Amino acid sequence: MESELLETNGSIDVVWLELDQPAEIVDELARMLHPDEQRRVARLASPLERSRATVRLARRRQVLSDILSLPPELIDTRPHSSGQPRCVAESREPLFISASHCEEVGLIAVARDRTVGVDVEATHELPDPDQFAQWVAAVEELHEINELELGERPSACLRLWTRKEAYLKATGRGIGEGMHQVRVPLEPGPWELPFQPRPDGPDWLLFELETPRGGLNASLVMARHDSNVPRVTVTSR
């Protein structure tokens, strides 16, 4: 999964992060954070949460620094009017950003010309599949899940969860917008799969990401502007 970050217009950079790092690396990364980020980290309850948040925020700065060829301390991220985070640099086009984390694993996606969303979730965090499906699934999706064998339903619900979360992050509205209002494909392993999250709405593209360890599911979604599909490059740090 190791490779250099692309600098080609239209590419999507996806980066997996290992959040559990030695104390000396965490201390070094902490010096990279903006004071606002340092205050956010300090409010977290446990040393483990603070350590992982430090790595997550600093690595995001490093990823954006590599893409923009700017020092990490000059990276400025702020919410767009849609609610989705963007990276803004003087005299540069803004970058669209999405991030997720689950336990010791972090995930970042960066795009230049379209909105993106990512999500990663752990199997063991999934509630009772039947109750969860009632909460999350649209009517048609619920029918699909109920037609599956009992042993297949938990993984289908996990895919449903990550794909809807990724889409709602990309729109900048979050799960408060209502997961029942969004439809996603349920089949395993899609890559560059067009789907229509909302009736009569535009098409999006769905990518199921290979995860760095078992017990996880991860999704990337992006706005589909035309027939050209950006190259997705996956790296790890």
Quick structural overview:
With 237 residues, the protein is an alpha+beta fold.
Topology readout:
Blueprint: E1 12-18, H1 23-30, H2 35-42, H3 47-68, E2 76-79, E3 85-88, E4 95-102, E5 105-111, E6 116-122, H4 129-136, H5 139-146, H6 153-171, E7 191-195, E8 204-209, E9 216-223, E10 232-236
Parallel strand pairs: 1-10
Antiparallel strand pairs: 1-5, 2-3, 3-4, 4-5, 6-9, 7-8, 8-9
Helix pairs in contact: 1-3, 2-3, 4-6
Radius of gyration: 18 Å
Structural class: alpha+beta
| Gross CATH architecture of the largest domain | Alpha-Beta Complex
Strand order of the main beta sheet, please? 2-3-4-5-1-10
- Low-confidence runs of at least 5 consecutive residues: 1-8
How far apart the termini lie comes to: 10 Å
Beta-strand segment tally: 10
